[in-house]
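Request:
You are asked to prepare a plain-text protein record giving the amino acid sequence and the backbone structure tokens, at your earliest convenience.
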Amino acid sequence: MLLSYTLKNLFRHFWRTLATILGVAVGIAAVLGTVTVGDNINANLQSVFTAASGKAELIVAPGASGRAVIEAKPVLDRLEQEPLVQRTLLTLEYYAVLKNEAKDYQRPIVPGVQGGFLISGQQTDRPEDLPVKLSSGTLPVKGSFGIAVSQSFAAQERLNIGDQLSFVAPTGSFELTITGLLKTDGGISSLNAGQVGVTSLEDLQERTYLQGRVSYVGLILGPRSNAEDVRLKLEDLLPETFSVLYPAGRGQVSNGLVQTVQSGLEVLAATLMALAGFLAYNTFAASVVERHREFALLRTLGFTRGQVLKISYLEAAVISVLGVLVGVLLGVAIAAAITAFNAYLLEFPFTTLELPWTKVLIASGVGTVTTFAAASGPARAASSVAPLIAARGSVDAGKGFPFLIGALVLAVGLLLSVLHYPRAWALTGASVSMALTFVGIALVSPALLGPARRLFEPLLTGLFGVPARLGLGAVLRSRARNGVAIGAVALGIGLTVGVGGMVSGINQSIEDWVETTIIGDMFVAAATPFPADFRDQLKTKYPELDEISAVGVRIARYEPPGERPRNASIVLTDPERYDPAIGAGKLQFIEGSLETTIQEFYRGRAVYASGTIADRYNVKAGDTVKLRTTEGWTDFRVLGVVVDYTSAGETFIASTRDLKLFGGGSPELYILSLKNGNPRAFGEQLKKDFEDLYLDIQYNEEYKKAILDTTSRFFGSTNSLLVLAVIIAALGVANTLGMNLSERMHEMAVLRALGLRRGELMRSVFTEGIVVVVMGTLLGVLGGLALSQVITASANTLTGYRVNPVYPVQLFGVAIIASPVVGILAAFLPARRAARVSPAEALRTSSEV
């Protein structure tokens, strides 16, 4: 009986039920869409690399010793001792630049990152094992010096079978003839945005002078082999200069900017987890507050308090199930949209959508639990009131908590938002502090409506006349429900200010780092290796040069105390550049200084550690760190701790005097400054004088702009959450005003009968909406300031960066204008509906409530 009544009641109040379901669903969807961003980026990158590895279940790759290739024979000899390895597949990956594009080619922004055309050397005599599919032509055979290129690349360059491709590479120039076209539906052709081709392994080794060397060895295991058991066994069998990985492991791309955003999103997701519960509470509480008269009628008809509560809980169960279903579907759509956007920015194919079941269950659980919590509080308050008193409408079932308790909850939330939490507690601290802050805002809001009425009355009466007084009176009569609407607006504004403050803070931090680090007139890279005497040639030919600084980037193995070795970036730079007496370069020091350490930096075997390294592994100035070099594990003294955004922040800045310890070779970049003259004119002359190097020259302002433009693109998916925040605010306002009008149908009918025109009725409704959105905006800015502090502080704890929230004037402009404008627009539909209802119909409707 109760279930039947519950379902009929839900369908009878269809729009109220729909609004409540959407309130629950939006919270779940926001959480689900946010927490799966990193999972989906990794899943798609891993799927690309898995497909590109063909039948290989494991790969043996370099052990991050600074070298990109390994000797194949020692690996193959040791693999003969493992009977579960059925076959091996050798691969040599090599990046080169097409000669006809070399003059216009631009190296990646970060030195040391590979760019250009990817040539994959494969054992083409075993096509059945290769991760390629031919659409036409043939695979190149040994000695043909041919290449099969992807269809997309051939179409883009208008190439045909038989055409020749000329490459410029670090080992010199060479040509390959196109023998076939590869399908672009997966495998190797999905790498490097389609700029890829397959050639014979032996031919590529010969052309690049890398005979006997490969990038990795793919392992095809025997039937019924356990890949994890084989991997662990081979880790023990092979020297630590090799790593045994799953093919997807190559997709674990490490990028400081991406990790910064992802860490911020993780904190935001934890916060949204709490706020989703708050939103579910708000929407359901508003629904139950509206129905205290209905509950009173049920009590009059003989229903017990327990039965009234059961009805409320049954409604909560139905709404939570529907909210979870809609929320998961909406969350999938949000996750897909964000992943597709990131795939476009990061240039990887969007092939899979990852939805970890644990995160789906957590997000769904939050919505379900908070819906039941929302049903319990207001329903208990309404059911405990005497039937006759409630039937007269003299009780407000939303008055559950006094102002002082709400103020206390808000104060505790704000206090927790400024505390610094250990790394393990960062996400928990963020979610708890934000949950308390926004719950506190919702609890204190009803008590603030009285002072708000007195404050707004002169202005609104002047604008709308007598209808404004009616609207202001309605604000107080629906005090509890309007408090719920204020909480929804505050949530939308809070997210706008909080997320915007985080993004602006990260942008400002990176901009400060760029302004400090990117000092020099021009930044010179080359398609081919710089000659060993390039610096001397520059000094001899160009006396007008004031500074010539080299920069190289290597990957080395770092051994944190008590932990397993891991990869770290080694940025090698000339000490002269940072010498306070003669250099133009600067470092942002967190701990230490150049004045006291520069002489040790000149001597070598000393490094400056990034703030991320310092925070994650408790590294301080004066400590010693172990890095794997060509001499084995080598001690380096830490001279100081600095800000750095290279390679997920896990970076050491070392001297170019130590370049030979990290694999040798030439620097990737030279920074040049002129004593006087035009940098662009000098750059053009430099290109002519070193025509065979195919120089890529970027000038100071352009280089800075390119870096900042690259970083700002990573925040597109984060900023899209602001749109969701505005939708949440609009939904809360429209839902509340719609319920207010439904309850006041009788009142409006009487007013219309007494001569109140439709336009005047609409103005009274708008008055109520304006008070709600303005109060929500003011309180939302307060919550947003706290939210931005929590997000950035927790992201700093997770990443080790030093980012502070920044609040540009434009951000507050968007926050103050966007949600109120959308909220008032959301109020238009209920206001228009109320104005169009005839007095007779309104009286009939009110009699049915």
In short: Residues 109-113, 249-258, 393-400 have pLDDT under 50 and may be disordered. Residues 305-346 form the longest helix (42 residues). Residues 528-693 form one domain.
